[in-house]
Design brief:
single chain; alpha+beta; 14 helices; 25 strands; 28% strand
């Protein structure tokens, strides 16, 4: 138990299969009721797909675990109806400070521009995140969460997956057209299908200590290299909700994790960091080891992997849960289209192509962060310390400081679903990039652009006349500057390079599929066909 949170206990309920003895087939079964699995349930249900979620526990995650949630996942959760509550409860922040010993050497701003609905980051204990999503799932008749249900074996057929599920009342069988494995880094599903999980473990350990204290530290990310209170190692400080603070201490590889988790060993470290006279209570502690790995294929037959079951990174950079949520954002619309018979299996295969590319990008950044934070030899350490020393004096060295490159969306620049640009464009909104938000006015009321870019494919027309383009199930909604909305601050035109007119094709996951300077119905239809792997 924690001092600041009472864990809910969700009821175990016998399913129809158990009561009837029949084996029923479901469109989608999700293994894992954590942030990624629950996001998948909400996203698929939003598209009319019935889902069953199986979780072998009956509560939310114990301990705060994941803490930092980035802008893009929050935008996804906002679209699914749970983001506003998370932001309201969480601690929003965008500034980070890096220290060498007791001296600040570098400050960064993760969202230096105005005009965004969602903050750069919030800090929120994972159990709140899961609690809010469970409540949202319980309100949705298309979602069936089954607690105390553990998949103990599975067998794949050409068109479905057969599972044996263990419950307090024994084992029963169920089937799924598709199985989505969101069961974490130690995924049993991965083992059952023989999926390879390769990469590297790093020979270092960090202690997490969550404490409750009243303190006047700002809501910023503070990272120390070789601080006076923890010489020769690194440390991190973050503020969470309910006056809970996350502290990370580098321990080194030779330490005993069980010994380091003892309160009598944690409390002196905490006092050295925050001061002997500051009152606090130890809330939760854990010791972790870095790993940077990913699965060989995100799709194994009828089994799809997402989140930590598909990839594992070091916690510095907040690339774990944030990346997993973006996996779901990419997968759900494709899986829903295949289930409805609207798109070929080839569309589902692009899930691996796009998200493995993103995973490799995250693994690269995470590995570089880990190498900078924990140098492997004397030369690397001298280089790191020289960079930190120069960062305090010169601009050029600051981009080299790497205390964890904070999570940002990986654009699918080389995706086979993109239509290549013609002509010259400025700005970041290239095909494969997720659409940027901006303030707008709709029917005289303040609104946000991303709320207009949802519900399927969208044609965003900025200073260009556009007409509906028939494309079957993928016929895009037309959203036009001037008639659908007003660009109240000019930021839409600025961010989308619309001075000479611009037309964007936006995918259901709000990624840009194509863009043009003028409307051509045949070009739009061709781009939709390409973005759906030839569905039309």
């Amino acid at each position: 138990m924690l001092n600041t949170y009472d864990f809910p206990e969700f009821p175990y309920v016998q399913s129809k299969e158990q009561k009837s003895g029949q084996t029923l087939r479901h469109p989608v079964v999700i293994i894992g009721g954590g942030p990624v699995g629950l996001t998948a349930a909400l996203d698929l249900a939003a598209q009319g797909i019935k889902v069953v979620v199986l979780d072998d526990n009956n509560t939310v995650s114990v301990g705060s675990r994941a803490v930092c949630y980035a802008k893009r996942p929050l935008e996804i959760w906002d679209r699914l109806g749970v983001g506003e509550r998370m932001i309201e409860k969480g601690v929003d922040w965008k500034l980070g400070r890096v220290f060498l010993r007791d001296k600040e050497v570098y400050t960064f701003d993760l969202l230096p521009e105005d005009g965004h609905k969602i903050p750069a980051f919030i800090n929120l204990q994972q159990y709140y995140l899961e609690e809010y999503m469970v409540e949202a799932c319980d309100r949705n008749p298309l979602i069936d969460i089954r607690w105390k249900h553990k998949v103990v074996s599975l067998r794949q057929q050409d068109d479905h997956v057969e599972m044996a599920v263990e419950t307090p009342d024994g084992i029963f069988n169920l089937e799924a057209d598709w199985l989505l494995a969101c069961d974490g880094a130690n995924s049993d599903t991965r083992r059952m299908v023989g999926a390879e999980f390769t990469g590297q473990f790093f020979q270092d350990r960090f202690l997490i200590a969550d404490i409750v204290m009243k303190a006047d530290f700002p809501a910023e990310r503070w990272f120390w290299f070789d601080p006076n209170f923890h010489r020769g190692q690194s440390a991190l400080l973050h503020k969470q909700s309910d006056d809970v603070w996350r502290l990370d201490f580098q321990l080194g590889w030779d330490t005993d994790p069980e010994v380091e988790k003892r309160p009598e060993n944690i409390i002196p470290r905490v006092k050295a960091m925050i001061g002997e006279d500051v009152e606090f209570e130890l809330e939760w502690a854990s010791v972790y080891q870095f790993a940077c790995r990913r699965v060989d294929q995100f799709r194994h037959g009828r089994v799809l992997f997402a989140g930590d079951a598909a990839h594992q990174v070091s916690p510095f950079g907040a690339r774990g849960a944030n990346t997993g949520v973006q996996d779901i954002d990419n997968l759900s619309w494709k899986l829903a289209a295949v289930l409805r018979g609207e798109a070929p299996l080839a569309l589902l295969d692009t899930y691996h192509g796009e998200r493995a590319y993103a995973a490799d990008d995250n693994l690269l950044n995470s590995t570089r962060s880990t190498d900078f934070i924990t140098p492997k030899n004397g030369a690397s350490k001298r280089f790191r310390n020289a960079v930190l020393d120069l960062a305090n004096k010169t601009e050029f060295a600051r981009p080299l400081v790497n205390s964890g490159r904070l999570s940002t969306p990986t654009p699918y620049l080389d995706s086979e679903l993109n239509t290549a640009d013609e002509g010259a464009w400025k700005g970041r909104m290239v095909p494969g990039t997720c659409a940027s938000d901006a303030p707008i006015v709709v029917n005289g009321k303040e609104d946000w652009l991303l709320e207009q870019l949802s519900g399927g494919f969208v044609l965003l027309a900025l200073g260009v006349e556009a007409e509906p383009v028939p494309a079957g199930a993928f016929t895009p909604k037309v959203v036009t500057l001037g008639s659908s909305f007003d660009d109240s601050q000019g930021l839409v035109s600025e961010r989308y390079d619309a001075a000479d007119g611009a037309l964007y094709l936006i995918r259901p996951d709000q990624h840009i599929a194509a863009r043009w300077r003028s409307f051509d119905a045949d070009a739009v239809k061709s781009a939709i066909s390409k973005a759906t792997a030839g569905a039309i």
